[in-house]
Write a structure and sequence with these properties.
about 180 residues, alpha/beta, 5-stranded mixed barrel, 4 helices, globular
């Protein structure tokens, strides 16, 4: 029973952490009342301006790529309303290389991980990265991945997958863990 309670606390802490991180990245304001919905005539619908881009608050690299954290992708995998902001977009994400031989005959799929500080201790969080070639570098070395964010269903779960176009070694960030 103690183990189940501890696991429950870890999940709750991770969910809260992810919500706080993504709120800061995506600028969601759930306390702002929605504008009233008014039915429009077909001629009015054609003249409406494009909706605002919800990704304006996401940090960008000098190349214009969205700079995300592992937790951003994990949260978006669970929240369908966030996926359109990320899916199909070019992103940059930094983490530690974790090679994985399971269901990976070509060796081109690996995990990109970061450690999370939760209420019950440190826990790894990771996303899948698919690269055309096996990544160079030692296990747990720091890398930056540039690629396209996608979400796929495997084993009945929605997973975040980064289709890499570039993988390079980098120095560890100032804060190696996410809080």
């Amino acid at each position: 029973m103690k183990r189940i309670f501890t696991l429950g606390l870890a999940c709750a802490g991770l969910a809260i952490l992810c919500a706080v991180i993504l709120e800061s990245h995506f600028g969601r304001h759930h306390d702002t009342p929605a504008a009233p919905q008014v039915p429009l005539q077909s001629s009015q619908q054609q003249s409406l301006p494009a909706p605002p881009d919800d990704t304006d608050d996401i940090p960008r690299s000098k190349e214009g790529n969205m700079i995300l954290e592992v937790t951003d992708l994990l949260y978006a995998a669970q929240d369908a309303s966030l996926r359109p902001d990320i899916e199909g977009k070019t992103i940059e994400i930094t983490g530690q290389l974790m090679l994985d031989g399971t269901d990976n005959p070509n060796g081109n799929r690996f995990k990109l991980a970061r450690m999370l500080d939760t209420q019950v201790g440190w826990r790894p969080a990771w996303v899948w990265v698919e690269n055309p070639v096996k990544p160079a570098g030692a296990a747990m070395s720091w890398i930056k991945v540039v690629g396209t964010a996608e979400f796929s269903t495997e084993g009945g779960r929605i997973l975040a997958v980064v289709k890499a176009s570039k993988v390079e070694a980098v120095d560890p960030p100032k804060e190696t863990a996410l809080y």
